[in-house]
């Protein structure tokens, strides 16, 4: 990144924060808009994986070759998937299953049932809840009083949104399906985050590894299910521009670019302030859904949005234990 040499660290950090928040916000709005287009959620997931693979698979292969050539490099020379993943097979598969396949397929499927405003609350709102619970039982983290207050706000906000849609299920509504899918997607990302912390993974290597796993596991499965008639695909009938846009935005933008900028933001602002900055995403994406998609913002959605945002901010106060803060630094794969 030679063009950044003339920039001050503060300028780089601010630029990275703006790009990260913009992409994460756009992800929610665009994913919901895409649900009204030609492609299925599994088509969009394929476009994401292919787009990210164009950049990250060669990067993963380069990292493996460099590790083998220079002793003492991060990763210890471990590799898998024919030297394309810079992590060992077991770690690559575990992280890729949750951070690559699980998150993408569940999140994109959710947008086909529930509005973007619901995703604005439940995707980022459920993540701190699942992450804290997993870190408590798997990593034996301590939940501070500030985090307890934050989690209570998040649970209340999630219930205001998801609970209301669940009650409407008795009237034949399907929004609750999207809400559950969003929460399941957030849980998958939380599992990946805890795994990344447990194995002390480098952000770039982890992102490359989960992309390699997704490419080798999702693409053959997708093709097989199409051949068996289990899945339907509109890739061949959709406008070429729509397909290319999904490849570029969902793959290159959401995974690669936001992964790099989030890492830069963490380096400049630290995990606590970075998480406070990304707490803007729920409100901005909800506003974007109202402006660009014409979605209504009912009182329960607005109240849930406020509670989730307050909960995120409480959860990242400086009173949070240092061990918990480190999770943000290790889970810098592109969440969008």
Task: Throw out a few tags for this protein.
single chain, 336 residues, mainly alpha, 11 helices, 0% strand
Q: Helix-strand pattern, N to C?
A: HHHHHHHHHHH
Q: List low-confidence stretches.
A: 318-333
Percent range for helical residues?
over 70%
How many independent structural domains? 1
Report the span from N to C terminus: 23 Å
Give the mean pLDDT: 86
Residue share in β-strands: under 5%
**Largest β-sheet summary:** none
- 3D shape: globular
Can you characterise this structure?
This protein has one domain (about 1-330). It contains 11 helices and no strands. It has helices at about 10-35, 40-70, 90-110, 115-140, 145-170, 175-200, 205-230, 240-280, 280-295, 300-315, 320-330. α9 (about 280-295) packs antiparallel against α10. The longest helix has about 40 residues, at about 240-280. Mean pLDDT is about 85; it is low at about 320-335.
